[in-house]
Design goal:
- By secondary structure, this protein is an alpha+beta fold.
- It folds into three domains: about 260 residues, 2-Layer Sandwich (BirA Bifunctional Protein, domain 2), CATH 3.30.930.10; about 100 residues, Anticodon-binding domain (Rossmann fold); about 70 residues, Translation Initiation Factor IF3 (2-Layer Sandwich).
- It is built from 14 helices and 28 strands.
- The strands form eight sheets. An eight-stranded mixed sheet has the order 3-9-10-16-13-12-11-25, with helices on both faces. Strands 18-17-19-20-21 form a five-stranded mixed sheet, sandwiched between helices.
- The protein starts with about 25 loop residues before the first helix and ends with a strand.
- The structure holds one RNA strand of 77 nucleotides.
RNA sequence: CGGGGCGUAGCGCAGUCUGGUAGCGCGUCUGCCUUGGGCGCAGAAGGUCGUCGGUUCGAAUCCGGCCGCCCCGACCA
């Protein structure tokens, strides 16, 4: 008799496949979409490429914002806000650079009930270098006005052909830092300082290991002298650019005459930087840690760190449990833990277990009459899905410990995954075999032509040239021409 | 924008080939029951079959246009 036939009569309640997520193995991108939908993070809207960020998703963004904003303030930056609409002529000013943006830009052609004349139209910001420089030009007179260190939290719009929730939407939320400095050295220092901030945020808060490095000529921001990025590996082994920091040189200063008078009384163009991360990070977070049961979020950014589930057969049984649960929640809250008591009477505990796993609550406390009789509760961990029984009094301390441990473990796990899927590749055969297999460290002759061949023939693109990879000369995998050092290639989002 | 797939109840799908009263599972609502891994029973509500047009006595079904979603490319944070 086969296993399928000998279902015992008291078989545990049948699993309903309707309720399960597709697995990452089966279909990674369907899994991703489903996690977002089932965890109630975001919806597609009727405007193609635009999303509705739901409270559960927005709460993650708020946590990210809070942490990043603190880091920006700690490095001397101030927030400001610049307009959504940018005179089209501003973009024309930098046609040479921002021509690259043109296909992605939405233009306002009508306003006030009539068509706007050519030359008086607006674009919806795809990024704000131009309009911010317009202000900087007014703000900067003297070297005494420098540096200017500004950040803005805003929405931007880039028309996308293939939108994907959080990763690539036509409208998205981000922060863009914009700074002016008196020297090239200072601007470079700032560019790298903010890249470090992003690295620290990604690793210490998102528990997502990243590679810091420099973008190639063809991958850099239009208008920048140099672009640096942090690159992360998702669970499908594809690379995701998680943040960028640009050294803009004097390119925008020259377009907008952003000048200062030096100590020597000479007029000089300012040196500038810009840097940003976006709601894309939410997508990165999902694809780095989540599993087939749903969302997994590192405790430092999790909207819900502990959920308390009340169990009991009758209202008489549940009453005292509920009371205890709320007291415990108050203690946890006092200790700085984001906690929720689920005392919804209309849903059973099994349902709630599955629900909070889907939603990514880091820890779950199960509390029933049997536990309380023994002065215990059950504590379940989301990432490892392990359970333990603890004394009621030790709950706060144990939750703190586990949250801290989970934060560390998630990072280590992601790091190990990346290490297992990073390869030095030296031949075309290896490249063929490993093209889908994560980060490939390869020699490349440095020409855009060869870079293009890597992309067209193998689907891999340059991610960045890592700072912490020793650069030793070698031979380009494709052409055999000399290379100055290895660079990260991968299939990328 | 090119290639492929799909659009039927809130969600997942069958029905389309071969035209003839709109179906299933989950969810929702009501009542009872239940609560330590998505409980059970009974009843109910809910759909202009993406949209516009054509063929036909009759279209979810056949034909055409358009829109949207997913996958693969080109583009991108």
């Amino acid at each position: 008799m086969s296993d399928a036939q000998k279902q015992p009569q008291n078989a545990p309640k049948k699993q309903n496949d309707n309720l399960k997520l597709p697995t990452r193995e089966q279909d990674f991108s369907k899994w991703y979409i489903e996690v977002i939908s089932r965890a109630k993070l975001a919806d597609n809207s009727d405007v193609r490429g635009s999303m509705v960020i739901r409270p559960n998703g927005y709460a993650i963004w708020e946590n990210m914002q809070r942490v990043l904003d603190g880091m920006f303030k700690d490095t001397g930056h101030q927030n400001a806000y610049f307009p959504l609409l940018i005179p089209e002529s501003y973009l024309a000013k930098e046609a040479k650079h921002v021509a690259d943006f043109a296909p992605q830009v939405a233009v306002v052609t009508h306003a006030g009930g009539k068509a706007l004349p050519e030359g008086e139209r607006y674009v919806i910001r795809p990024t704000s270098e131009t309009i911010i420089n317009r202000s900087f030009t007014n703000w900067v007179q003297s070297y005494r006005d420098l540096p200017i260190l500004i950040n803005q939290w805003a929405n931007v719009m880039r028309w996308e052909m293939r939108p994907r929730l959080f990763l690539r939407t036509t409208e998205f939320l981000w922060q863009e830092g914009h700074t002016c400095h008196a020297s090239e050295a200072e601007a470079t220092e700032e560019t790298l300082r903010m890249l470090d901030v992003y690295e620290r945020f990604a690793e210490d808060y998102m528990a997502m290991p990243v590679i810091k490095g420099q973008k190639t000529e063809s991958e850099k921001f239009p208008g920048a002298v140099n672009t640096y990025s942090i690159e992360a590996m998702m669970q499908d082994k594809k690379a995701l650019q998680a943040g960028t920091s640009h050294m803009l040189g004097q390119n925008f200063a020259k377009m907008f005459d952003t000048m200062y008078q030096s100590k020597e009384g000479k007029k000089e163009y300012v040196w500038q930087t810009s840097w940003g991360v976006s709601t894309r990070l939410i997508g990165a977070l999902i694809m780095t840690h989540s599993d087939d049961a749903g969302l997994v979020v590192p405790p430092k950014l999790a909207p819900l760190q502990v959920v308390i589930i009340i169990i009991g057969k009758t209202p008489e049984e549940r009453g005292p449990v509920r009371e205890k649960a709320h007291a415990m929640a108050a203690d946890l809250k006092k200790a700085g833990v984001r906690v929720l008591v689920d005392d919804d009477e209309t849903k059973g505990p099994g349902f709630k277990y599955a629900e909070y796993e889907l939603r990514g609550a880091c820890l779950r406390v199960d509390m029933g009459p049997k536990d309380l009789a023994k002065n215990e509760v059950t504590l379940a961990r989301r990432d490892t899905r392990s359970k333990e029984t603890i004394q009621v009094e030790s709950t706060v301390a144990r939750c703190h410990e586990l949250l801290e441990q989970m934060q560390k473990d998630l990072f280590e796990k992601a790091k190990a995954f990346r290490a297992a899927n990073t390869h030095e590749v030296n031949t075309v055969e290896e490249l063929k075999a490993k093209a889908d297999d994560g980060f490939l460290l390869m020699h490349w002759d440095g020409t855009p032509e060869t870079e293009k061949r890597f992309k067209e023939e193998f689907g891999v693109t340059t991610r960045n040239r890592p700072f912490d990879l020793k650069q030793e000369p070698g031979k380009c995998v494709l052409t055999g021409n000399p290379s100055t050092g290895r660079i990260v290639f991968a299939k990328a989002y």
